[in-house]
Amino acid sequence: MAENQDGQEKTEEPTSKRKEESRRDGEVARSKELSTAVILLSAGMALLVFGSWMANQALDIFAYNFELTREDVITHDAMFKHFGASVWYALGTLLPFLIVLFFAGAISQVMVGGWNLTAKALKPKFSKLDPIAGIKKIFSKNSLMEFVKSVAKVLLVGVTAFIIIYGLSAEFATLGAMALEPAIAKGSYLVIWSFLAISLSLIIVVLLDVPWQLHQHREKLKMTRQEVKDEHKNTEGKPEVKSRIRRMQMEMAQRRMMSDVPGADVVITNPTHYAVALKYDEEGNSAPLVLAKGKEQVAAKIREIADYYEIPVVQMPPLARAVYFSTEIGSEIPQQLYMAVAQVLAWVYQMKQYQAGKAKKPGKLPAIKVPKELDPEAD
């Protein structure tokens, strides 16, 4: 199990902050074996695709170089011009192959750990020059794993090469009896496919190395309990973090509150500035309960939800303000408002009975007075 410099065991999973710091420092999981295998396989595929064209280009370059006359050889300008043209043709011939290798190398680097380019990773680390740390690395689990991989690669490449050479020995033997150009073409074809097969055998090492590198990186990022506590303390102590946490808590509470509005019996409004959603359960509560309340935009949202779920909305400014200022969400209204709210609920019940065709239409809801001490905005 990993330990820090104080000898404490790193048993805790890394926090998101620890992971971000690690990426900024250029510490990401990488697999050299994966990069090697991808580059070698890409090289083999590129040779299969561009091999014939590259061979013809090479023959043209050789032929071009044999066209030198005696005057060209003894003339500096002609020689330099000829040499420059040969180099230019050679680069043009190799360009497709080099482009494939470039992209293969770039893609293989981000297949494990993702894209991570940081200047901090380019800075020299003098801690790597510590001889004691170097000796410890020699006897570490990572060194043992590297040794196992090296042995596995030697065995895989050796066994694969032996099987291929043994299997194609008859094919290679026939090359001597063929004309030069067909022999070169067939020989190149056999060599390229042999190269691809040997490269493909390295996939076994890759399957061993990638999980190991991910595991090692995860173990390296692990933290001690004290480190987690210290980070939590430092993070929670920042004003911007506290503000963000409070904002998130308020948003969560508001979402929870809004989800309760559909269960309300009535919504009393100001009509635009305040809104409170009330529910009265004769069996469960001794008094009406405030399910949600809000002002301005929150009030508008409560009214919108009430309209959508066909919950009665009653405009009663003094009562809406009194409930808003006197009662918290999830609490019962104060005793001073029992009579006022009871009148509203009774009127709502009569209106529902009328809409269901079971009673006459109730009259207009009369103005309801509330105690001034419960309505700070009362005149």
From TrEMBL:
Q: Where does the record say this protein resides? A: Cell membrane
Membrane topology, as annotated, equals:
Multi-pass membrane protein
Q: Which GO terms describe its cellular component?
A: plasma membrane
Q: Report the main location listed first in the record.
A: membrane
UniProt function note: Required for formation of the rod structure in the basal body of the flagellar apparatus. Together with FliI and FliH, may constitute the export apparatus of flagellin.
- GO terms (BP aspect): bacterial-type flagellum assembly; protein secretion
Q: Where is the composition biased (Basic and acidic residues)?
A: 7-28
Q: Which family does it belong to?
A: Belongs to the type III secretion exporter family.
- Where does the chain cross the membrane? 34-55, 87-115, 151-169, 189-212
Region of interest called Disordered, as start-end residue ranges on this chain? 1-28
PANTHER family for the chain: FLAGELLAR BIOSYNTHETIC PROTEIN FLHB
Q: What superkingdom heads the lineage? A: Bacteria
**Which keywords appear in this protein's UniProt record, sorted alphabetically?**
Bacterial flagellum biogenesis, Bacterial flagellum protein export, Cell membrane, Cell projection, Cilium, Flagellum, Membrane, Protein transport, Transmembrane, Transmembrane helix, Transport
The name this protein goes by in its record:
Flagellar biosynthetic protein FlhB
